[in-house]
Each structure stands twice: as structure tokens, then as C-alpha cells.
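job 3f2a | input accepted
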Amino acid sequence: TGGGGRRVGSRGRSPSPSGGMGVLSMDEIKEKIAERSIIEHAVFTFNRLGAGATIDFLARHDRIDKDDAVAFAHFLFETPGLDKHKVGDFIGREGAFNMAVLACFVQFFDFKELSIDEALRYFLTRFKPAGEAQQLYRILQQFAVRFVKDNREADMTPDEAHFMSYAILMLHTDAHNEHVTRKMTKEDFLKSVAGQTKLGKRALSQIYERVVGEQFRLALTKTDKVYNRLSRDPRIIRAATSVNLRMSGLHHDVDGLKKGSRFFKYCRSGRVKVRWVRISEDESRVFWSSSETDQRPREMHLDDVIDFTVGSHRSPVFRRFHIPDEQDARCFSLHTDQRTLDLCAPNAIDPPMQVW
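job 3f2a | predicted structure (356 res):
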């Protein structure tokens, strides 16, 4: 992570060419599940309680040091599912640690060979800046420094880049706010930046056309949307709170996995079947059968599992079914070289979805 900080995620194995994690032992699968549970809980904590509680949680689980700005900036930049409004609010605040995290956060961006408006568009895919002027000023100041460092051939000073980024944001707000009735023309924009930049009329006209032609948007993945929705669900909040009490280890929940839960199993044939799913007593296989008492279950050896994915967008079987957003967070898949086991939990199962 740089600066002596610890990595937020697990230290791990190299991905296989297929995008999986290679052949994992049962202990490695448990470690991977535990790691994902910690990061998942950190996301819920951030979205519900903010950065302070999240830093405390990650520090308790030895993922970062409390004063490690690089590690927390990496968490904000890389972790899917974080509320991008909260990210913007945190990095825009004037506290010493906030500003240190902001300075580190911008270092994860690569603005090389981008025009200043394209760089700003990319920058703002990762967070939503707060509306307070001083917060925006601080964020754009750090953006300008990074942009100039990445584009030395542009012959632009940090002050010029700072001014232009602010002017571009004002143009963007004017162009895409439906409450602004008199829109800024190209001539208005050129006059507003005259004498403040070395950019020529042609380059400024192109900036105007790009900004007015397409709105800046957050880059929201399916994972982001699922976490944002779940962080407002009281059932998930209660579950996350209880999981926090157990997060030091999942071993005592394995008994529940051995007993099993009822799932919807999505099949390559296009059918959906109700199946009882459980882990074998020796923890080497996962079984699924038509009932809890079925003596001839199908099975998958866990040593053959190369990846475990949550959500419906990572499995070709799930993608055939066009799973609704409200079910997506209850879906997961076990991947082997030969097949996937694609399961979707009902609204409530025991053990709960978090344990699975």
C-alpha cells in the first residue's frame, strides 16, 4: 500500500487465467469467505455509520492502522459498494486526516493523455463531491496538482488547472441543471475563462461541446447498486450488527452449513428448482438434493472450486435468467473448471445468507 500501510484486502493467490483463484483448499476457502465477510461488513459500516466507524472496524481486524491515510484511501478507491456521496463528503472535509486521505486518493488516478475536462469526468466517476464550496475547492486543488503532474507537456500550472476545473464544473452545472433556464452559451464560457488559461479557442470550444453534450456520471456497478440498496434495508442492518459480534471467526457457523438451507437452484436447462443445500460432515463437499432427507444428493467437491462469486452477473447460468435487482444480493455461485453451482436464497434462511 505504500507508506508502510497494510493492505485492506487479503494477501492472496494469483488469479487463474479463467479469472478464478486457482484450486483452493478448504482452509483457504474459509479464509477467503472470512476476508470477504470483513470487507462486506466494512462497506455496510461505511454506508451506514461513516468513515470513523469503518476505520475502527478495519483496525480491529488488522486490515489498516488508524492513522494510515494511504491504506484508507486505497479502501475508498478500490472497494466496490461504497456510498459515493459519503466518499466525496469524507475526502472534502478539512480535518488533517481527511486531507491526507484526499492527497493519497488522487494518486490512484492516471490522467495521462487526457484533456482537463475528460480527466475531471473520469475523476468524478469515483465519488460525488459535497455541495459545500470549500470542500469542492480542496478536492479540485488536489485534482489540479495530479493533472498537471500527469500532463507536463500541456504546459499548465496547478493554479490554471484549478481555475479551469472549477470553470468546467460551473459549466456542467449550468448545462445539466433543469432549473437553470438561461443556459451559458459557448461565447459566455469563452469570455468567463479569458485571460485565465493558455488553452486556445479551439480547445476551449471542444471542452464546451463535450461538457454540454454529455453529463458527468458516477460509475455505478451492479455491486454498488446492490450495496446501496441493502444498506437501507433494516433486515440487513440487523444482520450486519449481529455479524460484527461474530466476525472474529466463522468456524462455529459451519455446523449450520452442515445442517443446510433451502435454496432456489438455477439450472443450465433453463429451469429453477428448490433444493436443500448443505456441507458434508468432513467439510469437503457441498450437497444439494430435492429434500432434507434425500439419500442420493448431487455433490461438488470443494477442492474443485476455483472461485466463489456473489450476485448474478458473474455466472453465465444466472445471466440467462435476468435476475431482478432485488434478488441479486441473495445469489451466489461456486465455480469449478467444469460447471457452476448457482443458488439464490429465499428472503430468510438459517444459517443466514451472510454465513453462506
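job 3f2a | The first strand starts at residue 261 and ends at 266.
job 3f2a | closed
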